[in-house]
Specification:
It is an enzyme of class 3 (hydrolase). Keywords: Carbohydrate metabolism, Cellulose degradation, Glycosidase, Hydrolase, Polysaccharide degradation. By secondary structure, the protein is an alpha/beta fold. Helix content is 41%, strand content 14%. It has helices spanning 24-27, 40-45, 63-76, 88-91, 101-116, 132-136, 144-160, 173-183, 193-217, 240-263, 268-276, 287-291, 344-357, 385-403, 446-461; strands spanning 17-21, 81-85, 120-126, 166-171, 223-229, 233-235, 297-301, 306-309, 327-329, 363-367, 408-414, 433-436, 441-444. The strands form 3 sheets. An 8-stranded parallel beta barrel has the order 1-2-3-4-5-7-10-11, surrounded by 6 helices. Strands 6-8-9 form a 3-stranded mixed β-sheet, with helices on one face. A hairpin with a 4-residue loop joins strand 12 and strand 13 (441-444). Helix 3 (63-76) packs parallel to helix 5. The radius of gyration is 21 Å and the shape is globular. Bound molecules: ligand GBH. The site of ligand GBH has 14 residues, from loops.
């Protein structure tokens, strides 16, 4: 099937970068091959009740064995770039010591295959698969993990820097720290507030150390970056309580990452909030200079924005433990299969705000997309109008942000194909390409054909 090419929003320049994104544990499978050791996600998936249907990434999309065909699939979409992550436990089993040549060779072949097909490789060094041995030694709450990450980054960079132009360090440290060490719904499933604060600081420190190490090793110029998940946090009403809740949500979700990265300090209001509850970031002399090492591009992962209320349903401003209420109130809008609201206007709002509050920082949308309840026909084709509409409206929101001055240079759809959706297992599908997990057949959905045709149309129109 083909689609009628719908022009993407006007005003995107010829140099605008179009891509698709994945991550290692979500697609690769081959969990025990060629010397790979377990990551925290291999362990977490075996914890009863942790992952929907007790799914795991042992096989996933079997990308490790189907890589050349998957690169051909990417090429068929006509995108410029492919964002993928490298599995730390493949290239440096156990998280320490020498490189594992067999693990590294996979990414060597992937990069060569991409380049042979004219696709720009965009590397993410860490998309949540910490070697289990490092978790056993304390994980991200332990300072040493930041130094181990820099060593690992140097191994990857040394091997790929001759062919890869863009290296980003972390994907969504908020998820690693908050969901992994405080809420406990992601690996390693710990539930300790102070551990999560320590994880934040050591993730940021690892980012800075790794960026410095790569710069010191480079034999030609590269683009360095980091990807954060970000939404918007507006007060539900103008009440002081709601404004306070929005301030706290924005502080914990966005400013405690971007302020140290770009301004070399944690936000004073958040430091004060934390002190009031007896907590603090474990900052040592010199750390903030490392964390604020300049980088070239901020990766923005956007799914939705929210309003916040400072009172619970009964009007209380503090919960049972005495903590102030910060309640996400999802606006009354259509939802995706994740129950996430669809809020494209807030995407424009976020991008313009980043441009205003953190100027001089080029932006690339490294993830945006949606899960819907796909219904494949007998041939495996999915007529996913809702996903097509989601992508179309959010790309239009990017064009609008650019029109308002935001320096957004590219857009990666999440995801190339259906894959292991973390705690949701295989039940939630974000792909623009359908995957039949029984046969590993890939079938482009309507949204993929729309994306392909629209990119081509936009190029021919300019
Ligand atoms: C990304 O995480 C991941 O990078 C990717 O691997 C994953 O498959 C994809 O998105 C789809 O989930 O309501 O307080 O939780 C995104 C996770 C979702 C975290 C939105 C922040 C909003 C704040 N993000 N969420 S909250």
């Amino acid at each position: 099937p083909t689609t009628t090419a719908v022009p993407l929003a006007a005003g995107l320049p010829t140099t605008f970068q179009w891509g698709v994104a994945t991550s290692a544990y979500q697609i690769e499978g081959a969990a025990t091959e060629d010397g790979r050791t377990p990551s925290i996600w291999d362990t977490f998936c075996r914890k009863p009740g942790a992952v929907h249907d007790a799914d795991n990434g042992d096989v996933a999309c079997d990308h490790y064995h189907r890589m050349p065909q998957d690169v051909a699939l990417i090429k068929s979409l006509g995108v410029d770039s492919y964002r993928f992550s490298i599995a730390w436990p493949r290239v440096q089993p156990g998280g320490r010591g020498p490189a594992n040549p067999a693990g590294l060779a996979f990414y060597d072949r992937l990069v060569d295959e991409l380049l042979a097909n004219g696709i720009d490789p965009w590397v993410t060094l860490y998309h949540w698969d910490l070697p289990q041995e490092l978790e056993d030694a304390g994980g991200w709450p332990a300072r040493d993990t930041a130094y181990r990450f820099a060593d690992y980054a140097a191994i990857v960079f040394d091997k790929l820097q001759d062919r890869v132009a863009t290296f980003t360090t972390l994907n969504e440290p908020w998820c690693s720290a908050w969901l992994g060490y405080h809420v406990g719904v992601h690996a390693p499933g710990r539930q300790n507030f102070d551990d999560s604060l320590h994880a934040v600081h050591h993730l940021l420190l690892g980012h800075g150390l790794a960026t410095q190490r790569m710069r010191a090793l480079e034999t030609r110029p590269h683009t360095y970056g980091i990807t954060l998940n970000m939404g918007t946090a507006d007060p539900l009403t103008d009440s002081p309580e709601d404004r306070e809740a929005a301030r706290r949500a924005d502080g914990m979700g966005l400013r405690i990452y971007l302020d140290p990265l770009r301004h070399g300090r944690y936000p004073a209001d958040m430091v004060a909030d934390l002190a009031a509850r007896g907590s603090a970031f474990p900052v040592r002399d010199g750390d903030l200079a490392i964390i604020s090492e300049p980088f070239d591009v901020l990766g923005v992962n956007f799914y939705f924005g929210q309003d916040f209320a400072g009172t619970d349903e009964s009007g209380n401003t503090h919960d049972g433990s005495g903590a102030p209420v910060v309640r996400a109130v999802l606006p009354d809008t259509p939802r995706t299969a994740m129950d996430w609201p669809i809020t494209p206007a807030r995407f424009t709002q976020l991008l313009v705000r980043l441009h205003r509050d953190y100027p001089g920082m080029p932006l690339v949308v490294t993830e945006n997309g949606a899960a819907f309840d796909d219904n494949p026909d007998a041939s495996g084709y999915v007529a996913d109008d809702e996903r097509t509409a989601y992508l179309s409206s959010h790309i239009a929101a990017v064009a609008e942000a650019r029109a308002q001055g935001a320096d957004v240079r590219g857009y990666f759809a999440w995801s190339l194909m259906d894959n292991f959706e973390w705690a949701e297992g295989y039940a939630k599908r974000f792909g623009i390409v359908h995957v039949d997990y029984r046969t590993q057949t890939r079938t482009p959905k309507q949204s993929a054909l729309w994306y392909r045709d629209s990119i081509a149309h936009t190029r021919s129109a300019r």
